[in-house]
Write a structure and sequence with these properties.
The protein is an alpha/beta fold. It has helices at residues 2-30, 94-102, 136-140, 161-178, 194-197, 205-222, 230-233, 253-264; strands at residues 88-92, 109-112, 126-127, 133-134, 147-151, 183-187, 225-227. Strands 2-1-5-6-7 form a five-stranded parallel sheet, sandwiched between helices. A two-stranded antiparallel sheet has the order 3-4. A hairpin with a 5-residue loop joins strand 3 (126-127) and strand 4 (133-134). The radius of gyration is 44 Å and the shape is globular.
Length: 268
Amino acid sequence: MKKSRTGYFIIVLLCLVLVVAAASISDINGGKKTNVPAATKTAAVTPIPVTTTVPAPTPTPTTGPKSNGGKPDVPAQKAADDSFFSDSVFIGNSLVDGLYLYGGVSTCHFLSGTGVSIFNIEKQQISDKQGSNCTVMEALGRQQYGKIYIMLGINEISISAESFSEAYGKLVDSIRAIQPNADIYLMSLTPVSEKKSGDGGYFTKSNVQAFNKAIYKLCADKNCWYLDDFTPLADQNGYLPASATSDGIHFKPSYYATWMNVIRTHYI
């Protein structure tokens, strides 16, 4: 009886062993194998670009000429003789051409021509009054001057004073780059006659005065001298005397000498 029980238990144990072995083989070959996840890789992250706003540099304040209390006004002086202008050049339009012809000073240079304006001065060919043609900028590159007188504006009178001033300022910068040591005098527009001012065109007293105001501010901003030709050449009402002009803008020969006397007596 004991033998049969013992045999029975052995048979049961053998059956259990066989069942467990079969289950293991089924998990390996027939069942779904569970993969152990590999170590998770850190994905490369594209950094979000950080926009760094670089503040614009603070411009160095440009004061006006310092030798006259920080103002660009040219004081009245004793009349200078011709030798004072030996290191000078006059730049401008047909009015400056008239100054060359009738002003009475031959010791300086003139770079002027009919129709010259801030918009064509770097390209327009003019006579250098010494036998050749060139642009104003080309002539300025040939030699250094101590004093540069510039008169522009009457040919630009149809545009706004603001646009004129902006373009004029760029021209002044270009000239100063070529002539870094020169005193630059920006001459005001000269007056127009009362008849010309009332003709209904752009050549009015108010436009001339607006341009002169812009030129004055430009002188203060660009460290230039403001030579007021308007006040001493105008009559008590702010107009060019009728006896001094035939077209309301340009002078008769004798009045160019009057203008030159204003320049002779206003300098630094």
